């Protein structure tokens, strides 16, 4: 991961701070094959004088960040991310209307160009957040994964062409989305994840509160668990704007 010069971060100013992470509970949607979320009481105030729980969940559950070693054996693990790589400027591209009509919709280069016509060219170093409206389906696992009778999932994501354009021509630092995958539901090969993580770029999934963000001018603070050798981590993400 590339470390930033602290001087690049010294001019951050903001008037609002919001959470972009979902609450973690036992009923959150989890990917098929992932471990379930569990909470176990270890100590109770009435018995032990204090309250403590043990929790368990997958590294790619809840709002989370994926690390390169989740797909590449020689890739960076989550504990190796420099702290400065986790504070990023962000832009938000809204495709809610398209996704409401077509659950398989993917971001296109044309969508990016339309956004840039209104807001200006995406600055280098930005993290591009795709707001699809899927955050509203979070507590309905059936609707969130939207599987058809053949078991194929249908939810929006990034297209290969648009992602490659953002990497090559806009020099982004990564992407985020409010679905369970930056890859659309029909892409079972994790093409977009592989494309980004091969280059050690940021991948964040299961974001929320994206309706509260402006299209540009947001700074993200991505809080990770520094899991030794971790393939990713549940993330506490705050947006400042």
TrEMBL record:
GO terms for molecular function: arylformamidase activity. It comes from the Bacteria. This is Cyclase family protein. GO terms for biological process: L-tryptophan catabolic process to kynurenine. Pfam families: Cyclase. It comes from Dolichospermum flos-aquae CCAP 1403/13F. The lineage of its organism: Bacteria, Bacillati, Cyanobacteriota, Cyanophyceae, Nostocales. InterPro entries: KFase/CYL, KFase_sf. SUPFAM superfamilies: Putative cyclase.
């Amino acid at each position: 991961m590339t470390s930033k010069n602290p001087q690049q971060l010294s001019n951050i100013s903001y008037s609002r701070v919001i959470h972009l992470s979902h609450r973690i509970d036992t009923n959150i949607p989890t990917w098929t094959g992932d471990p379930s979320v569990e909470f176990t009481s270890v100590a109770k105030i009435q018995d032990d004088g204090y309250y403590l729980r043990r929790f368990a969940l997958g590294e790619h559950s809840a709002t989370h960040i994926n690390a390169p070693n989740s797909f590449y054996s020689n890739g960076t693990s989550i504990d190796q991310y420099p702290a400065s790589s986790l504070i990023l400027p962000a832009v938000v591209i809204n495709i809610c209307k398209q996704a409401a009509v077509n659950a398989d919709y993917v971001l296109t280069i044309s969508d990016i160009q339309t956004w840039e016509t209104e807001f200006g060219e995406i600055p280098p170093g930005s993290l591009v957040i795709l707001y699809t409206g899927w955050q509203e389906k979070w507590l309905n696992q059936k609707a969130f994964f939207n599987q058809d009778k053949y078991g194929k999932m249908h939810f929006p994501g990034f297209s290969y062409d648009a992602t490659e354009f953002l990497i090559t021509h806009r020099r982004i630092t990564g992407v985020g989305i409010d679905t369970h995958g930056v890859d659309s539901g029909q892409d079972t090969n994790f093409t977009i994840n592989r494309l980004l993580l091969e280059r050690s770029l940021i991948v964040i999934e299961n974001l929320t509160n994206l309706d509260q963000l402006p299209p540009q001018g947001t700074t993200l603070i991505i809080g990770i668990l520094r899991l030794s050798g971790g393939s990713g981590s549940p993330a506490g993400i705050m947006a400042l704007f």
